[in-house]
Request: fold
Amino acid sequence: MDTTNATQSDLRCPTCAGQCSYSPTYRGLECASCGNVHDLKTDDDYRAAEELGYNPNLTGEDLPDLSKTRAHHCKTCGGVVLFTGPALSERCPYCDGPVVLGTQDTSYETMALIPFEIDAMYAQHQAQDWVKRRIAAPNDLEDIVAKARVAGLYAPFWTFDSEEAVEYWAQYTVGSSSNRRTKTTKGKMRISFDDLLMPASPHVTPLIRDGILHDFDPSALRPYREGYLAGFAAERHHQSVADGLDSNEADKRLLIRNRIKQHINKSGVNNLGYHTHTSGIHYRRILLPVWILHYEYRGQPMKVVVSGIDGRTYGERPFSVPKIAAYSGLLSAIAIIIGLAWGAGGLL
Ligand SMILES: [Zn+2]
Ligand SMILES: [Zn+2]
Reply:
């Protein structure tokens, strides 16, 4: 097992040497002993939203090793704190003090993060309120969710920019039903993608990205500092940049096809094809704050997620079959299920 020298001294209170955790309420490190709050601002804060140019020839330098377990000796009590798998932030199991890995311990640099601005109490309220407001929810759901507690997590993401030079061809139909004809069209267009958000861990489901974080504001990014993670769980990136770009391809295809349809501006477009020349790829390796409320309904694990930035809430929920049947006078049951499950988020 490797040993590591994770950050703890920076998490000490300069006033009384007590242990500090990040406080979303005070936007700083709050001492558990004396209650003083210490600022985490730096002169470089304004640079946190900067991006890196992607160089496809430089591969391998950022491959994360998630199989290693690292041991850290707690500077407060001497106990052993283990960092396993993707964990970036832990608490000492003996004295409960926060311990956070620095960028020197991860073989790559987490460039920036958006600190939590929503505290646990508010997130708890948001998650429970979301469940209460669902129509066709089973009657016993509210009580089950009332017992569940939110947990805060910094989740890993990529942002990608690119320039696309697209050439497309397509067919569309014109005329009335009695006189329908097929026409062909082709064209060229340029598309600039800016800050496409891509999950960098299999634990970050589309629920989180599409439901609550899809329009996050990069200007709220701050440089990675261990203090922001103190007291919160945090997960490192599971992929290299190249793998992140690969997994972004399907999203990009969907967006490009939609833009082409807008560009053609005709109804009845079909048989659409295109090729694109991609250039100017830029990326960021960032963490975004999420509150997650896990609950179980009749053996089925579900979760409600709350954005740690603005409290936006989205989730998974069971449906009451009798209640859906009662609504079906207005809409078909299927339309209710699909509309409620995906209506609030939108795909991207
Ligand atoms: Zn203190
Ligand atoms: Zn300890």
